[in-house]
Protein 1
Amino acid sequence: MENTSTSTAVQKKGKTIVVNPISRIEGHGKITVDLSEDGAVDRVRFHVTQYRGFEIFCKGRDFREMPVITPRICGICPVSHHLASAKACDAILGVTLTPPAAKLREVMHMGQIIQSHALSFFHLSSPDLLFGFDADPAIRNIVGVAKEFPDLAVMGIGMRKFGQEIIKTLGGKKVHPWHSIPGGVNRSLRVEERDAILADLPKQKENLKKAIALIKKYLADNEELAKRFATVETSYMGLVKNGMLELYDGNIRIKSPRGRITDEFAPKDYCSRIGEHVEEWSYLKFPFYRALGFPNGSYRVGPLGRVNACDDISTPEASAELAEFRKTTPDGIVHYTLYYHYARLIETLYGMERLEQLLHDEDVLSSDLRVTAGVTNLVGVGVIEAPRGTLFHHYEVNEQGALERVNLIVATGNNNYAINKGMEQVAHDYIKGPDVKEGALNRMEHVIRCYDPCLSCSTHAVGKMPLELIVRDSRGEVLKTVTKE
Amino acid sequence: MKILVCGYGNPYRTDDGVGHHLAPLLAQWLGSIGQDAGLYLDHQLLPELAEDLRGYDLAVFVDARVPSGAEEGFHVSDVHPERELEGLNMHSVGPEWILHLVDALGAPVPPSVLVSVDGESFDFGDELTPCCRTRMDRAADSFRRWFSERYL
């Protein structure tokens, strides 16, 4: 599903490149490449140019409405916003969920992880891996995959559907479901619904293992590329529970590039640990770990961030796969950006195993679903691991429950610095002067796809956003603009 | 005859949700005349639909469209696989692209028809405008005639 028109036009002899729009990511942005006088790449910036302002227009609303409002930020990961928002509301109510409610939220969350990771790997990234970055864009898309690798395409479609059906079962619909409410959830699973999910699970797991074998072979066959492509050494962040990978709840852990645990703290304390740097050329902020400042405190989140941050994974098959993954480097910390895909599939395996555990727990059939309370705390923070990384919802309310302040740190923002640095490295490798080949553009887009960002989410922008690549010379004059609609 | 009726659009944007109103009506009518009719309702068409279409003898897509200026205010037309119509955008794949994906997956592409109804308003709201409702009723009649002439 490559975007249709790619227009390139050298505007003037000299030195700046802009990619616009970037395709096969959720939402679009702009890349600017500044060249030095000798035509070499001097600086690369990934701009996100849209703004929606959920943090502003939600002020004054009752906090209880937020689990329904905030999922509208995104059509791909509405469940993540729904759950993070509900958790922030729980904190304002000062309640602890009943075990059935917590488990049912996690069931929906696993459905979200599975469907979103399947979309990222099979629909958006596999065309580049299977056909190569320089392949004809006309075939380098999911339809091309369906033609040449129909079994893989069917696997991907089926896996995404499997995750979406879980969301729909609990939340009434695949996109923008409604299940979590402040203090709990509004329904449990029926026996036949649980059994239907369990019946399909073995097939999905079997298919996933084939995909894991595929990415491992790709990384082995393309070892040099895999180790160089957009690689950047950063810290890593993710939720952990007793040191184990955690996607729904737990403490936030930050690990250094060398694998040392730098910090571990409760989500409610994020403000004292995480700052947000702003650049005038992008609406997407640059979060960083305050103690190290910006940019040294920049970190990565999402699948690679999480598998690097945790000690281990609590489910056996994902744990074994993580052990394999860590053999990639002597210290077990993997900085290679292409390994995001491998980490993503390991997490999907965890999601399936965790789902199986939850569904075998009779609590998911229980009717003990909600705890009621009034406003107990004037501040509530809800943190969850969205498929793309750590997602923060922070609300401040008055005694009546009207929102006075809203702060959202969305997963994509956490990776902003690394995306920029990775793109700069790829530009250095593949761009010399204003004559930018399509394969070079696609490699820059693939940097973004590795992170599976949702630009709509992170800037709260509306609908589809085109992305352009602009090449500028050393005087800032535009030499070339490449636009994909 | 096994038929899947697919209504899509945003039911919270007034007439954009006409597919959610019209598709159930068509599915119900098809069922009442002895056809094996299934119903798919969603905000948008998704690649997964390509797998769902396996084994169907006919696909009926039902959507809103921006005012076309056509006197009838609706259109019933055959659709065929087309890969170039859509670019990368998970937000807006059309029926032609879905059919192309069906073909790429090696499955037989079912004969397909698109029922488009002109919207009057796409503002916030979960009810159709009277004008769109009238067009929807006419479109339903037109589809019934089209189906009867072709398949009965």
Note: The first helix of chain A runs from residue 54 to 57.
Protein 2
Amino acid sequence: MRPLTAGPDEDARHTTPSPMLQRLAAERATGALLRDRGTLYLADGQVVHAESPATPGIDILLTTGGALRHEGWWDAVAQAGAGQRVARYLVDSGHVPGGALELCHLGALYDAAFFALAPTRTPARFRYGVSHWIGPVRPVAVDAVQRETLRRRELLDRIWPDALTDTAPVTRTAYPLDAPVPPRQLRVLELADGVRTASDIARELGRSAFHLLVDLRRLAAAGLVEAVGREAAPGAAAHGLAALPETADPDVALLRRLRDALEAL
Amino acid sequence: MYHGKLPELLPDAGTLRNLWVTAVRDVGRGVRVPGIDECLLEVMRLPGARGAAVVDWTSGLALGTTGESPNGDHEATAAETAEVARMAAEQPAFALPPPGGAGGPRPGPPVEDVIITTHTGYHVLRFVETAFDSSVFLYLWLDRAEGNLALARLRLGEMAERLVLA
């Protein structure tokens, strides 16, 4: 679970999310950076694509809104998938206008990159020479992606400094709707059923997952939405605290366990 | 060869067969089509245009920028203008249906544009309607003395349409 306030993230916030990505950019590498929560594809040291299990892919985004029919997507994959030029084919064949594809793909790239670059203890791997079948659209500098990822973390914490709604299933609170809720947030509220997570709702609405995090934090700040399972965490933490040994000279490991338990509250 | 995560919509067997048979021919073709950069260049041709950007108003992300920015930092300008766009798009007062109730509900924000006039310039925010879910607007910074607001507003509207329909 991501710490709610200070802690290890405090350091990460002011440095680059992935120093390895910075090195790969410097050596103008081509390949795939596989991280815990997603993959970034580089060509010549620039980010050309990103994907994450937490975010809807460009196929979901385009087909859910009606910009592209399912057959159109599969036609493109069939015709241009192995040649790794699916995006180009979508535009050339008239399935999707060029500007719309750029907007959608860029949105999906930054969306997946945000999750892929989330703090993790799992080491990343880079596979040289690998490229993605979507093909070239609009490359983005590694610096821009890293900066934007940090800016997005700060934006979320400014709206509402509790990250639980980012990952846990969300549900409506008992508060009545006493102030107008913007239509886009209202649709999210309707799907907050105690089972779906932000990623589930994003997929269902064909909307960027980061946009969902923003909407959920706003709804949480308004007291209309909360994460399910909030009660479960303190119980587990209390168990951890009870098991702590009593020593006159607490060592670093003990302090770490205390901190983890407090963060889990 | 590793091709990354499989698409989330599953193809039928015939489609999969075609994928391997036909796609190999496509290698090596490629021409740039009109997109974000071309749209921004077009916007900058307006008399008095000082800077322009394509911005996502939910995140404050600048998807493309050109020319100058009022505070010397395109990313900061994008985040600030995005907040203005969001406020405008979400106010119930601006979301009223047209008189007579004609047309029914339309997708996208009900606001077409936001114009802010300062002593030295105009800031025009034009919402872009897309066929997929998005929250994008075109931003133009126009010099007050050299710019023609009426013309800029019309052209920006046209270009917001062309960007996603061309």
Note: Chain A touches chain B through 67 residues (CB under 8 Å).
